[in-house]
Amino acid sequence: MARLLRDAQVNTIWEGPDNILCLDVRRGIEQTRAHETLLARLRDAVSVSDDDDTTRLVSRRIEDLDAAITAWTKLDRQLAEARLFPLAQFMGDVYAGALLTEQAAWERATRGTDRKALVARLYARRYLADQGPLRGIDADCDEALQRFDELVAGAFTAEQT
């Protein structure tokens, strides 16, 4: 997660453990309102996607993230600092979901395939969906297992990179 957050930035030091990186998230929100640019980028990413369940889920989480940031800005400074890590994690999860959704739309448009849509769907289910009190353990099927060969066939190998 720290790498994803670090790579999303271009103008900061991004060194140190996660809790130190979170202080830079706070600075970005408080001093430069960087979250507004992030949220705009996330909304843009899902705007090119098909209106399917995954896109709707990611879109809802973008709005939830916006509400979470607003709520975070109203907290007492000490409490807000204590909540930075879960906020940063939430930002990273939604960022990844939006980019995967955007890539799925690109693949459908350019290649006519849906492997990236499968990856986006699996990611969204794992990290963005409410899986209920049993956390999906009671699910009677697993799309990742059913389509495992398809997932592996589209993955890069060391020789391809």
Outline the structure in words.
This protein has nine helices and no strands. The chain is mainly α. It has one domain (2-132, 140-153). The longest helix has 28 residues, at 84-111. The protein starts with a helix and ends in an 8-residue tail after the last helix.
What topology emerges from the helices and strands here?
Blueprint: H1 2-8, H2 18-32, H3 34-47, H4 53-73, H5 77-82, H6 84-111, H7 115-127, H8 143-146, H9 148-153
Backbone shape = globular
Helix and strand sequence: HHHHHHHHH
Rg over CA atoms: 17 Å
- In total, the number of strands is 0
InterPro entries: Acyl-CoA_dehydrogenase-like (IPR052904), AcylCo_DH-like_C (IPR036250)
Keywords: Oxidoreductase
Enzyme class: oxidoreductase
GO molecular function: acyl-CoA dehydrogenase activity
Summarize this entry quickly.
The protein is mostly helical and 161 residues long. The protein is built from nine helices and no strands. Keywords: Oxidoreductase.
